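Sanity check

After download, print the first record. It should look like this:
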Amino acid sequence: MYLELAGLIVGFILLIKAADYLIDGAVSLAIKFHISEIAIGLTIVAFGTSAPELIVNILSAFKGHPEICYGNVIGSNIFNTLMVLGIAGLIAPLHLQKDTVLKEIPFVFLGTILVLALSNNFWSGGAELSRLDGIVLVFCLALFIFYVMGIPRQAPKEQFHDVTLLKTLLLITGGILGLFIGGEFVVRNSVAIALHFGVSEKFISLTVVALGTSLPELVTSIIAVRKKSSDIAVGNVIGSNLFNIFLVLGLTSIIKPISYNISMNIDLLILMLITLVLFFMVCVGKLNKLNRLGAGILVSFYILYVYYLILRG
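Expected C-alpha cells:
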C-alpha cells in the first residue's frame, strides 16, 4: 500500500514538473509569434496544463478503466472552476475580459451539455462516447481555437527574448516525455489504491486523480495572479476546461471508444450548474470581476461537493 501511495505521489510530481517544462517551452514559442496573452492562456498554457489529463485518459482507456477517463475530466473541471479560480481570486481579485464572460464561459457550458448528450446517446441508446462523438468534440475545439486566434495580438514580453529555439524545443520534448511517465504512475497506482480501500474508480478519479492532474492549473494560476496577469490565470482555467472537454475526451474516444456510467450524469449537471454560477457571479455587481467574496463562495462549493462525494461513496 505504501508503495502505491509513493508511486502516486511520484507520478503527480512528474506530471507537474513535466507540464511546467511544456508550458515554458510552448509559451516562449508562442511569444516569438506575438500571440496575445489571453490567447496564450486559452490555448498554449491551457493545453500544457491539460496534458496530464490527456495522458492519464489515454492510458486509462487502453487499460480498460473508462470511469477514470470521465471522472478525471469532470473532476478536474469542477476543481478548476471552484478551487483554482477560487484560490487565485482569494489571493487577488480577478479581472475578466468581456469576451471571457460573454463568449468563453458559455462555450464551456455548451460543451458540457454536448458531452452529456453524446455520452448518454439520447437519440440511439447505449451509453458510450464513440469515435464519431470524439471527432465532433475535436471539431468543436478547432472552432474555438479559430476564434481565439482572432484575438488581437500584442508585443512579445522581454523575458522570453533570450530563450533559444533549441532550448524551447528541448523543454517541449522533455515535458511530453515526463507526462507519459508520470501518467503511467498515476493510473497504475490510483487503481491499486481504489482496490485496496474498496472504493470505486469513479470516486478516486473524481477526487484524487482529478486533483493531481489539476495541480498544474492551480500552480500556473497562482503564479500568474502574483505576477498580476489575470488574463493568464483566467484564460488558463477556462481554456483548460475546454481542452479537457473537447480534446481530452474527444481524442481519447477517437483512439478507443469510452463506455459511460450514467451515474456520472449528476456530476456533469453539477459542472454545468457551477459554470452558470461563475457566469452570473462575474456579471453581478462589478462587471467582469471575481472578487474575494465570490472566490470564497467557489471554494466553499468545492468543499461541499467533496463532502457529497464521500456520502455518495
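If your output differs, re-run the checksum step. Summary of this record's structure: The chain has ten helices and four strands.
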